[in-house]
Amino acid sequence: MCKNMRKLAKHFSLFSFLSETERLLKMTLEERRKEYLRDYVPLKDIPTWMEDVKSKNESDGENTKEDLQGKKSLSEKVSLYRGDITLLEVDAIVNAD
């Protein structure tokens, strides 16, 4: 009996997850934001790796182009964030720990 209950619970969990995912995907960004329980950090507020290096080099008076030669495509797609990752409004988080 316990085995069947575990199977049922696992099935129900998967069903709940899938139905919630479907519900959220149908919502607009504004509708989803109304359901947030606390503040969030939108992706547009997180500088890309290139933007971050550029701003640091400009403040140091260095040339950014030479530093990022060959890394341009990756550095324009990746952002480095230091802070509470649970507040990020993003689709995926990669943590190298």
pLDDT averaged residue by residue: 80
Shape: elongated
Amount of helix = 40-55%
Q: Biggest β-sheet: count, sense, barrel?
A: 2 strands, parallel
Strand order of the largest sheet: 1-2
Please tally the β strands and state the result. Answer: 2
Strand content: under 5%
Summing up helix and strand content along with how strands pair, one would put the structural category as: mainly alpha
Overall radius of gyration: 21 Å
Q: Given the structure, what is the number of helices? A: 5
Element-by-element helix/strand order: HHEHHHE
How many angstroms separate the termini?
40 Å
Unreliable residue stretches: none
Please give a structural write-up.
- Helix content is 54%, strand content 4%.
- The protein has helices at 2-26, 29-34, 49-60, 64-68, 72-75, and strands at residues 41-42, 88-89.
- The chain has a two-stranded parallel sheet.
- The chain is elongated and about 65 Å long.
- It starts with a helix and ends in an 8-residue tail after the last strand.
- The model has no long low-confidence stretch (mean pLDDT 80).
